[in-house]
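Lecture 7 notes: from sequence to structure.

We start with a single chain of 212 residues. Read the sequence below before looking at the structure.
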Amino acid sequence: MLITSTPTGRDNPEVTAMLSEAATSTPALLFEQMGSRRLWHECMQLDQVIAEDVLRCEIPIKEMTFGIGMDDLEPLLKQLQELRTSSDPLMPLPDVRIEKLDFNRLEGEAREDLLRGMRQAHLVDAFYAGSMRELEHDEVARGFRVYYEQVRRHWADPEDVLWQLQMYVLGNAQPQPKVLRAALVVLAHFFGRCDIFEAPPPGWQPGIGISA
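Now the structure, written as tokens:
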């Protein structure tokens, strides 16, 4: 495996050629270009003992307060705050499918938070529009999925899972209301893409006894 990073996020053609030659000469090994974000996603799946073994050093763990959980999302959160402030309050709202909310047993305030976010989730698509941003979009989505699967192993209550995902975006500091609203739009977007929480099977309806 080879880890590289380019300013554009695209594969370096010289490195690609080198990897192709290496793969041909040593077919038993897998070679892959991996940027810093992808590397971080892989590291997220390691427990502390294995991570320390890989790094060959102790990882200091201590309680701390931080304001943004993901630096990559800070520009998106800033733009969402500005767009939400200036959006037309009379604009027609898209239909919101609620089956996934029912399937994942999201109720009460958690449900209402996601429903409000879904009505602005198209703003996240607009932010990531364009070929250069699509790769970033997919990588961020993968990060959400990796973290969601980790959280599900430790938290059974859907509201707790959503709370953990909120801290993944915002950190554990108390956010300003407009920042929290922007974060919920982001979560609603990735909820709609099925990067977080589970999609109901085809034909599923509430009340048939099956849920996530």
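The chain is about 55% helix and 0% strand. Keep this in mind for problem set 3.
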